[in-house]
Design brief:
The structure holds two protein chains of two kinds. By secondary structure, chain A is of the alpha/beta class. Chain A has a single domain (5-291), classed as Alpha-Beta Barrel (TIM Barrel), CATH 3.20.20. Helices cover 40% and strands 15% of the residues of chain A. Chain B is of the alpha/beta class. Chain B is built from nine helices and seven strands; from the N terminus they run βαβααβααβαβββααα. The model of chain B has no long low-confidence stretch (mean pLDDT 96). The chains are: A alpha/beta, B alpha/beta. The A-B interface holds A 79-80, 84, 106-109, 111-112, 120, 122-128, 131, 142, 158-160, 163-165, 167-169, 171-172, 174-175, 178-179, 187, 230-231 and B 153-167, 170-171, 177, 179-180, 182-183, 187, 192, 195-196, 198-202, 204.
Chain lengths: 293, 226
């Protein structure tokens, strides 16, 4: 069992987390095998909340499964599907089930997912959710009621370093830190020079920054993200590196790229850790870690 | 103003199935401006319904009348003398107008011809866009006159989400990101400092439905009478 996510930062370690996406449906054998494979190799397993607005098993349930298997879970909580009652209730529930870390997000919009006709909630935003976590940590709820027993969450938030324009993004980044974010996980980054420029700004704040690393699987995926995913920019040189790899070996190139970036971020002390998103290829995370050695 | 669009003819046809004598009541204010339910549009709908009946060999009479507004009682009163002659009344007002007409003439079948879209402005010829969600707690003073509750799909009041894409919205790439607009406007106004304030959660109890509002002066005079 790892020492714990918050403790890993305290030990001034280069912290590594990996993302786990709950499955759609009740077949969890693959999920459990990923948990078992990764739990001792990373400092935390970060569990998505109806990722991309697609209905799945809840983040909380998977966090509890991770605890049962001896891992350290980070609960992702979005504002899309729950109002302030449900969000606070979920947070209290997570705490009593042993979850100690929470990542607060706005959440993708409903229409990008598989239930586009559902009612979007967005009662709170990510900044207000962070403040809410702070209140629960003090034993109070958002309506200022005293509770019998509070929480002690280590709270985090996200930022998009390649956002266009960047200034409004940084405005919110600052608010998130004021609102109680202790760690920040970034959207996928591929251009380390751009990221360094972002870090020059981010370093002015007392917050741990974890660079988002999304495993490239094919050159097509990189081009797709450049075209369709806001805030992701894959430099042409990396796309060419992927394209140059032999057929059937593309993912190996992606693993090499991810490993190389993590090594550079760690060795040059550019940020405090990385968050690896190997969407659908969680079984390859150990290979990425090996490539980063 | 209220912006609306006419329902598809097929849907209106289905509503009047079995009725022979139809009166279409237009509304001459907002929906006339948004070219959905004013005098002209009533004329067009009436013509379409007549032709459709003729083609299908159905007996049908369609008459037209347009009032100034259907959301004020005084404009609904003059209709009293006509309505008895009809099997059904089609209203081309917004949802509020349809309900007010149906309420005034309780025994009558009143059917909606429009879908009410939003409170908005005229962007250009034939184009309207939403500007207000009637949140009952206006914050435009703090956002440079651009409403994040309306213009941001996620009604975010503390800044953009991660989906901003070259100043456009992740939900619809054709639409502007509210927070890019707000930031740029406040920058221009030299008021960026105001954006640093963390906005508290919104008070949704203010918009508990159905809304009802009594003007303060009227409330006082009522109390004095009592």
């Amino acid at each position: 069992m790892v020492a714990g996510f918050k403790q890993a930062f305290a030990q001034k370690k280069f912290v590594v987390t990996a993302e786990v996406g709950p499955p759609k449906g009740t077949e969890i054998s693959e999920l459990l095998s990923h948990i078992d494979l990764l739990k001792d190799r990373v400092d935390g397993l970060n569990v998505t909340d109806n990722q991309s607005s697609v209905m799945r098993i809840s983040s909380l349930a998977v966090c509890r499964l991770i605890l049962d298997h001896g891992g350290e879970p980070i609960l992702q909580l979005t504002c899309r599907d729950r109002n302030r009652l449900a969000l606070q209730s979920e947070l209290l529930s997570a705490w009593v089930l042993g979850v100690k870390n929470v990542l607060c997000l706005t959440g993708d919009y409903i229409t990008v997912g598989d239930h586009p006709q559902a009612k979007p909630v967005f009662d709170l935003d990510s900044v207000q959710l962070l403040q809410t976590v702070g209140l629960l940590n003090e034993g109070k709820d958002l309506a200022a009621n005293e509770m019998q027993g509070g929480t002690g969450f280590f709270a985090g938030a996200v930022v998009t370093p390649e956002a266009d324009p960047l200034e409004p993004q940084m405005l919110k980044f600052e608010k998130k830190i004021v609102a109680g974010a202790r760690f920040i996980q970034t959207q996928a980054i591929y251009d380390v020079d751009n990221f360094k420029r972002f870090m020059e700004q981010a370093r002015r704040y007392d917050v741990k920054i974890m660079a988002g690393i999304v495993l490239l699987v094919t050159p097509g995926m990189a081009r797709y993200m450049n075209k369709n995913v806001p805030g992701i920019f894959v430099p042409e040189a990396l796309i060419e590196e992927m394209a140059a790899a032999e057929k059937g070996q593309k993912i190996e190139a992606g693993i090499r790229i991810a490993g190389r970036m993590i090594r550079q971020l760690r060795e040059e002390k550019i940020c405090d850790g990385v968050h690896i998103m190997a969407i659908g290829k969680e079984d390859r995370v150990p290979d990425i870690l090996k490539a980063a050695e | 103003m209220i912006v609306a669009e006419r329902k598809p003819l097929q849907q209106i046809e289905a509503m009047i199935e079995g009725f022979e004598k139809i009166l279409i009541v237009g509304c001459g204010t907002c929906v006339a401006v948004s070219m959905a339910g004013g005098e002209k549009e009533v004329e067009e709908l009436a013509a379409q319904l007549r032709i459709k009946a003729k083609l299908q060999g159905k007996p049908r009479t369609v008459d037209e009348i347009t009032v100034t507004r259907q959301c004020d009682k005084e404009y609904l009163e003059p209709l009293a003398k006509y309505l008895d002659e009809y099997d059904a009344v089609i209203s081309t007002a917004c949802g509020a107008g349809v309900q007010f007409l149906a309420e005034r003439y309780e025994g009558r079948i009143v059917l909606p011809a429009l879908n009410t879209l939003f409170i908005g402005v005229t962007e250009g010829p034939g184009v309207w866009s939403q500007r207000c969600i009637a949140c009952a707690d206006c914050m435009l003073d703090q956002t440079g006159g651009i409403c994040p509750m309306t213009i941001c799909a996620k009604n975010l009041s503390n800044g953009p989400c991660g989906g901003t894409n070259a100043g456009k919205c992740e939900v619809d790439g054709e639409k502007d990101c509210a927070w890019t607009l707000i930031y740029r406007r406040m920058e221009k106004l030299g008021r960026l400092e105001y954006l640093k304030k963390i906005q508290p959660p919104r008070d949704y109890s203010l918009t508990t439905k159905p809304g009802r509002h009594t003007h303060e002066a009227f409330r006082q005079s009522q109390q004095e009478e009592e």
